[in-house]
Amino acid sequence: MKNKKVLVIVIVLLLVVVILGASYALWTTTAHQDGNNSAALSCLDITYESISENNIELNEVLPITDEAGLALEGYTFKITNNCNSIVRYQVNLETLNISNDTKYLNIDYLDATIDNEFIETLGNYESTTTLLSDNEARDARIIKEGLLDKSSNTSTNSVIHTLRVWLDKDTPTSEKYAQWRGKITINATTPTEDIIYDTAANYLTNVVKPTTDELVYDGASYTDPDTGVEIVDNNLRYVGANPDNYVWFNNELWRIIGVMNHVKGGENAPSEGETRLKLIRDESLGNFPYYEDCLEENMNYDAQTDKWTCSSKRYNNNWPNSTANEILNDLYWNRRPHAPYNGYMYLKTGNQTSFTWQDYKTEAVDFRNSGLKKVYQNMMETATYYLGGYTWDNGGTYDGVTMNTKQYYTAERTNQGINNELTWAGNLGLMYPSDYGYASSGSVSGSSCRNIVLSTWSQAANANCRNNNWLFSSAFWQWTMTLRVDYTINVADVSISGNVSHDNTHIGFGLRPVAYLKSQVKIIGGIGSSDNPYRLSL
After folding, report:
1. All residues at 6 or more sequence positions from 377 whose CB lies less than 8 Å from its CB, including other chains
2. How far apart are CA 90 and CA 496, in angstroms?
3. Strand blocks (E) in 149-238
4. Distance between CA 323 and CA 303 in Å, rounded?
5. pLDDT tens for residues 460-519?
6. pTM attached to this predicted model
C-alpha cells in the first residue's frame, strides 16, 4: 500500500508439540486395517531440530509485496522419524492469545508460505484443533502435512521446511496497531490405515484394489487419429452407488473418478502421458449456462423486477470461450466474484421447461471464500482435456442416440467438431459422458451397463445403470465436457432421469469441477468414506 503505514506487531515463536503414545487407540486394530499393527506399535519417535539461529520477529512491520515476502530469511526446521515405520506429520501454525485488550490482526491479512511452494493467507489454510491449551491459543491452521518413513530406499525419514510470514500488501488501515503472535506445533501420529510411502495412484492400485470390488479396470482404448496407433488406457475407476472414493480437497468433499493412464499436459510429463488421479467435486457449484453471454451495451436492468434483459444474447459450444470455462478457471480458480456487475452475474432462473428469453435475474457469483485454495491448486497440474464429441439422430458412427460408454470414450478423443480443437490444456474441466458410464456397476439382462446405450438409461428397464452409479444425481442436471460436433449450440449433459442427453448451451445446469492431480501426490490418511475421506499431500 503506497503512502500508508500500518503498524503491526508480528512475532513467531517456535514450539514443537508431538503427540506420541498418549492415545493407545492409534495402534488398535480397526475394521479397515490389515496386518500393520505390529509395525506401528513398535515405534513412534520423531525429533525436531531448529536450523535457523533466531526466531522470526517482525516488529512494527509494513505491508510488503509477495516478492519481498519470499525474500525474507524465514525460519528453517527439520523433522526426523527415528523409526522403521511410517509416521504422518502435520505442521500447524497456531495463533496465540495475548491479552484481553489486544486488537488482534485478522489472519486473512497475514501471508504464510512453507518452502516457497505457494503463498496463501493464513485464514485460507485448513482450520484444525489447537494442540496448545485453550488459554494459550485461539486458532490453528494446517500449513503442511506429509509422511516420513525410512523403511525402504524409496522413502525418506527426515524433512526440512522453511516458514516465511509477512503482512499482506493489501492490508487495510483498519488493521493499524493490530497484533499477532504464533507458534509452530507438530502433530505426529502412526497411521491406522495401510498407508504406504508411494504415489496415490500406486496406493489405490496396489493396496486398495485387492481389497475391494469398487475399483475396476475399464478396458478403455481408442485409435489415435494422428498416428493410427491404438492407445490402450485401461483406467482404474471407482464404480457403484456409493463407493469409498471420497477425498478431502479444498476443505470440502471431492471424489476420485479413477486412476487415469496416459494423461498428457503436465509440465514434465512424457510424450505418452502419465498416470494421474482424476477428481470431481462431490457437489455442484450451482446451475450455470454452459455458454451464454451478452455484450455489456446490450444489457438492461429493471430494478422493479430484479431482472436483466438482453437485446442480443450469444450461445455457443466453444469450450475455451465458454461461460463454464470462465467460471471454473477464472472465478473459481482465482477466488473472485464476477466482475462486470459488482459481484453479480446474469443467470437463467427456473428450469428449461419454463425458460423464457427474458427470464433473467441477478444472482451472486462470488468465490472469494469457496474458490480453490492455493494448497490444493499446488496439488494439481495442467492436463489435456478432449473436446471431441457426437452427432445426434443422424445414424452415423458417433450418433449420441445410439452410443454406449465405450463408443463415447472413442468419440471424445477422436471426433473433432466444427467449433473446437480436439484438445484443450487447462486446470479444471468437466466430466465426460464416458466417465459417467464407466462409474456404473449395474447390469441389464446379464450385460454390463457400459454396453447399454447411454441415452436409454432413463428407461425403467435400465434403472440398474443409473441407480448403481455414484455420479448420477436426481437433484440436478449436469453439464459434461463433450460437445455436439455438427451443431454449435449443443453440449452433452446427464439428466435427472439418468440418461445422457444434450441441450442448448444457455440452459442452467450443474457444474461439477474436474481436476487431475500431480502424479507425485500421496494419500497420507483416511479410508475414502464420507466421514473419513482420504487426505492428500505432496
Report:
1. 118, 333, 427
2. 41
3. 158-167, 179-189, 215-217, 221-223, 230-232, 236-238
4. 24
5. 999 999 999 999 999 999 999 999 999 999 999 999 999 999 999 988 899 999 999 999
6. 0.87
